[in-house]
Amino acid sequence: MHHSAGFCKKQFEIGPFSPKNRRNHLPIAKAVNAGQDQGMEDKQNNTESQAFRAHDKVQFDLDDYVARTQAGPCFICELVNGNPKFKHHIVWENPEFVVFLNKYPTLPGYLIVSPKSHVEDYAEQMGVAEYLKMQRLIHKISTALKLLCDAERIYQLSLGSAQGNSHVHFHIAPLPKGVPYEEQQYNALMAENGVISYTEEEFATMAKQISASIGAFELDE
After folding, report:
1. Residue pLDDT, tens place only, 120-174
2. What is the CA radius of gyration of the chain?
3. Domain ranges within the chain, ordered by starting residue
4. How many CB atoms within 10 Å of residue 115?
5. Residue 193: which residues within 8 A CB-CB, separation 6 or more?
């Protein structure tokens, strides 16, 4: 757990997160190096630790993404139906809900929670009992993430609209401790500031660790 808390903070800090940091991120890099030096004695040289190494952020093609969300099929329905073109790394599921890693994360450990059935408006199309069941699930997953990442706060929000990404889903993103205030909140979630580039192996390893952390809690089946 101690090592996992470090990876959440390091991955956020080392990347050129905002335009300001892309121009001048020397103080951030210096802080990361100091943290790495302090943690050298308990560093693990195995596949799991390497999956959570610090990453630079890469530019995200937002225009292409918007075009795909508006013209393409529902990515959550395709994921649930097993379409390999819409593969995401699932960390937990039951007959009603699915939890998976965001394919374009701006923060390490960024998850998406969604009902499996195609619901486009939880206020009008979900009953109170179903909605509260989903929120209980989100609360338990958030608790697991907070322990795993030693996060300052867990961000939760529902995005999308009838024009794109219409399938109801909630973004669950752990904010690492020590992030400057001006780089928190919406700035921490905006893909315009870049996304973390993980390999498939790193995604798989991260999913395994998050799944194990969630498994420590009794989730409603």
Report:
1. 999 999 999 999 999 999 999 999 999 888 899 999 999 888 888 889 999 999 9
2. 17
3. 2-215
4. 23
5. 17, 18, 19, 57, 106, 187
State the fold for domain 2-215: HIT family, subunit A (3.30.428)
- Predicted confidence (pLDDT) per residue in 194-209, tens digit: 999 899 999 999 999 9
Which residues, including other chains, have CB under 8 Å from residue 211's CB and lie 6 or more apart?
91, 92
pLDDT digits (tens, 9 = 90+) for 68-121: 888 889 999 999 999 999 999 999 999 999 999 999 999 999 999 999 999 999
